Amino acid sequence: MRESYKITLKIRRYDPDNDRSWIQDYHMEAGRILRFVDLFRKINEEQDPTLAWDSSCEHGQCGTCTVKVNGKPLLACELLVEDAVSYFETTIFHIEPLDVAPAIRDLVADMENAYEKVDQVMPYVIEPEPPFEEGNEHPITAHELEVYVDATRCINCFCCASACISSHNSFLGPNAMLATIIRVMDPREREKDKRLKVLYSDQGISRCHSSMACTFVCPKEIDVAHFIALAKEGRFK
Amino acid sequence: MAEDYEIKRFRQAITTKLANVPFISTYAKTRGRAYVIAWCHRISGTGLVAYVMLHIYTLSSLETPAEFNAKMKLFSFFIFRLLEWLLAIPVIFHALNGARLILYESFGCRDDETMTRWVLGLSAVYVLLMGMLMIMGNQSVTPLFFWLIALIISTSLAYLVASKVWHSGTSIAWKFQRITGAFLLIMVTAHLLFEHINPSVGHEAGVVIDRIQHFFIKVTDLALVIAILYHGGYGLLSIAKDYLQSKVLKSSCAMLIIVIMVIFAWIGLRLTLLV
Question: What is the arrangement of strands in the sheet containing A4-15, beginning at the earlier edge strand?
Answer without folding.
Answer: A20-31, A4-15, A92-97, A66-69, A72-75
